[in-house]
Design goal:
Layout lengths: L7 H8 L8 H5 L17 H16 L3 H12 L5 H10 L2 H7 L6 H9 L3 E3 L2 E2 L12 E4 L7 H9 L8 E4 L4 E4 L14 H8 L2
Antiparallel strand pairs: 1-2, 1-3, 3-5, 4-5
Helix pairs in contact: 3-9, 4-5, 5-9, 6-7
């Protein structure tokens, strides 16, 4: 299953945001990696700015280029605002939904839970991280997986129902995807218009 396996903190420093979760490296060195990381005079072209925003979105949600491009193409084929539909598609992925429900602390952990068949959607085990969750779908842990230390630790420290479009019941280790979030509700710092402009060229 394809995914980014390179240095996480280097990417976090590149985008100056903790895109993979809490980053001590970014706190210690809040500037880009490499010998020019501290430089104040970095003029970027319009293309470079757009490309960087697309790369940030890719790494944030854990997709590779082909997967991301396919989601964009699907978003352009639908009626509505392409950028918002793209982000809603990213948020509707099963691994991201598991993360938003608080079952894990990072998307990588959520992806692993899904891949290892710990997650059940509407009563059926699903092990595809990119599975598109629909409003009304019920996501839960398999009975044998409900006492995993990873899940217990995450649920005990996560704020209850932090995101409006999902609701979680820590006792039953289950949750419900209520609706597709609006652009304003999605907390990720991604300027999706720059991504649309990049792909529209």
């Amino acid at each position: 299953m394809a995914r980014y396996r390179g240095p996480k903190q280097k990417k976090a420093r590149r985008f100056k945001e903790p895109i993979f979760g809490a980053s001590k490296a970014l706190e210690r060195k809040p500037y880009g990696p490499g010998q020019h990381g501290r430089s104040r005079f970095q003029r970027k072209s319009e293309y470079a700015i757009q490309l960087e925003e697309k790369q940030k979105a890719k790494y944030t949600y854990g997709l590779l280029e082909k997967q991301f491009r396919n989601l964009y193409e699907a978003a352009t084929a639908k009626d509505g605002v392409t950028g918002e539909i793209l982000l809603q598609s990213l948020e509707s992925r099963l691994d991201n939904t598991v993360f938003r429900m608080g079952f894990t602390k990072t998307r990588r952990q959520a992806r692993q839970l899904v891949s290892h068949k710990h997650i059940v959607v509407n009563g059926s085990t699903v092990n595809i991280p990119s599975y598109a969750v629909k409003p009304g779908d019920v996501i839960s842990l398999r009975p044998k997986s409900r006492n995993l230390d990873l899940v217990e630790d995450s649920l005990s420290s996560a704020p209850r129902n932090k995101y409006k479009w999902v609701e979680t019941d820590p006792k039953s280790k289950s949750g419900k995807f209520l609706y597709e979030p609006t652009l304003e509700e999605i907390p990720e710092n991604i300027n999706v218009q720059l991504i649309v402009e990049l792909y529209s060229k």
